């Protein structure tokens, strides 16, 4: 088979290698070279498996992720491992589970389909990207569906009607994507290219909608942002460099606060007077705070890499009496992925799919690197009038505690009590009075047979509760403590 890039979507992790081996004749191939993590490595000898290499060894777990380096490493490995084999008889299969291993991998996944096509060209191998429908996020599956020109099914390789060429998938506008699909459906030539309009993605609600990860504005990969809202507010470019918030004459804390506030306001933006009141509540005159806001907006534009006078090209736009933040197309935000991981893990747990749930929980755990907008000054973050940060921060904190509790519960069910207790301790380090975390910790200690430790755990709970909230423990947790101590 001529070198190509295909996607293969599957449900059962343990059967995928055998399934691929059965499909080799349909690709006119006889052997398989596999790149995967250890959980996909075949447990018994698979005659069709010609070579195996871990995704970590080939750089898929590095941060920042470099597909250029990965391509070079895979090309060198394939040339060595498959030396002497006839060209075109071996399939290179790459498990996409690496996309859940690091934050950098999740954020850069939209670039993978193009990299896979380059690997196919450089090695002369057919590259099959393996997408687990049970563990990968919805957006990951859509990237796979749009990113590969052919799909491998039980009936063989089929042309993919949903495929978009990399230059359109990564940099095209919705109109250009539509034109490409429509031309294929209608069997008509593509219309002449249209100019890229100014603007980018909008965020009608950052917890309700993920930004589209398959588009960037103008062909420059540096335009795409990776926004880290957990812990310190950071913006990464595609090359791994970060936006420098400190510029001459700028007020860093106010500049960061302005970015964070506009980010969460989404497409509606914020009124000039609203921003002025947020950043200078003690100003003697509104006109004074408006003038200060003008300079802070200019500083933010410079921080984000736009000339302060080039307003049309700036991601900070003024629309009548409002300012709107317009991140580049395809920008990624950690909190949106975190929420999706939490939602997906909950679905797996309710379905009894605990291994799949644990993958999502571990990915969510890695994303949460601190409280939401941790370095935004309390004077702005705790603003009770607008409540733009505090409630969201509390919600994410509680979700992180739940992530740890759910992971602990699954690990306890698997018999890994040390890992289960670690997750409980991680939750309690963030929220010392969390009933769900103390409950799970006592259940883990009971499973370990440590009755004295159960007593200490309950005492930690009541002491922390009395100190922080001045109230006794809830009856249900006390009843559990007494039952575990007696059994």
UniProtKB/TrEMBL annotation:
One of its GO terms (biological process) is regulation of DNA-templated transcription. It holds the Pfam family BTAD. Keywords: DNA-binding. Residues 333-485 form the Bacterial transcriptional activator domain. Coiled coil: none annotated. GO terms for molecular function: DNA binding. This is DNA-binding SARP family transcriptional activator.
């Amino acid at each position: 088979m001529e070198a190509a890039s295909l996607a293969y979507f599957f449900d059962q992790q343990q059967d995928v290698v055998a399934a691929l081996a059965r499909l080799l004749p349909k690709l006119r191939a006889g052997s398989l070279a596999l790149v995967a993590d250890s959980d996909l490595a075949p447990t018994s000898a698979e005659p069709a498996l010609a070579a195996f290499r871990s995704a970590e060894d080939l750089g898929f777990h590095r941060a920042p992720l470099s597909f250029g380096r990965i391509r070079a490493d895979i090309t060198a490995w394939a040339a060595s491992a498959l030396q002497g084999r006839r060209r075109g008889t071996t399939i290179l299969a790459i498990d996409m589970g690496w996309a859940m291993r690091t934050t950098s991998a999740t954020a850069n996944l939209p670039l993978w389909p193009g990299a896979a096509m380059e690997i196919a060209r450089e090695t002369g191998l057919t590259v099959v990207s393996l997408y687990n429908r049970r563990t990968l996020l919805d957006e990951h599956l859509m990237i796979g569906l749009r990113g590969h020109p052919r799909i491998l099914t039980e009936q063989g390789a089929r042309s993919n009607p949903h495929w978009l060429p990399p230059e359109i998938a990564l940099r095209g506008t919705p109109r250009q994507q539509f034109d490409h699909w429509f031309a294929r459906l209608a069997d008509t030539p593509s219309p002449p290219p249209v100019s890229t309009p100014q603007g980018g993605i909008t965020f009608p609600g950052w917890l309700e909608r993920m930004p589209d990860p398959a588009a960037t504005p103008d062909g420059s990969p540096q335009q795409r942002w990776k926004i880290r809202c957990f812990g310190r507010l950071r913006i990464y470019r595609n090359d791994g460099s970060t936006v420098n918030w400190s510029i001459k004459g700028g007020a860093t804390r106010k500049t960061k606060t302005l970015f964070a506030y506009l980010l969460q306001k989404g497409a509606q933006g914020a009124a000039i007077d609203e921003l002025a009141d947020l950043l200078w509540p003690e100003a003697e005159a509104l006109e004074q705070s408006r003038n200060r806001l003008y300079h802070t907006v200019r500083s933010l534009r410079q921080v984000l890499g736009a000339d302060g006078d080039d307003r049309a090209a700036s991601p900070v736009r003024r629309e009548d009496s409002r300012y709107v933040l317009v991140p580049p197309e395809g920008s990624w935000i950690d909190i949106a992925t975190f929420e999706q991981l939490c939602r997906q893990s909950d679905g797996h747990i309710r379905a009894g799919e605990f291994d799949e749930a644990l993958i999502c929980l571990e990915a969510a755990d890695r994303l949460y690197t601190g409280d939401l907008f941790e370095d935004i000054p309390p004077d702005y973050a705790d603003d009770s009038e607008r409540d733009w940060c505090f409630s969201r921060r509390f919600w994410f904190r509680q979700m992180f505690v739940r992530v740890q509790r759910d992971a602990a519960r699954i690990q306890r069910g698997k018999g890994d009590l040390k890992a289960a207790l670690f997750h409980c301790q991680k939750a309690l380090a963030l929220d010392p009075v969390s009933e769900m975390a103390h409950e799970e910790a006592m259940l883990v200690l009971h499973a370990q047979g440590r009755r004295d430790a159960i007593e200490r755990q309950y005492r930690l709970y009541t002491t922390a509760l009395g100190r922080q909230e001045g109230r006794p423990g809830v009856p249900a947790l006390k009843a559990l403590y007494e039952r575990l101590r007696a059994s």
